[in-house]
Amino acid sequence: xxxxxxxxxxxxxxxxxLLILALIExxxxxxxxxxSLFRSAAAxxxxxxxxxxxxxxxxxxxxxxxPSSNEANVLAWxxxxxxxxxxxxxxxxxxxxxxxxx
Length: 102
Hints:
Elements: H1 2-26, H2 31-60, H3 69-101
Helix pairs in contact: 1-2, 1-3, 2-3
């Protein structure tokens, strides 16, 4: 279940980066919008990387054994960082789109 959540989070983050690239291309002449979009893309990249680390921990402990305490800590931190960065990236994209529409 955790693996599937992280898999969906990486897919949504990747799609969001593609959306951001399209928006940056369209609004490249407005630096404050581009800067906000670059920050959200960076947040999505961090979310993808931390989710991949957490997915690796889950994948290596599939054999039915419980992960060690270090592995559990890495999984917890990766899961938390991925979720927070994804939320932060979505908020930045949403605020940027609101600024564009005004």
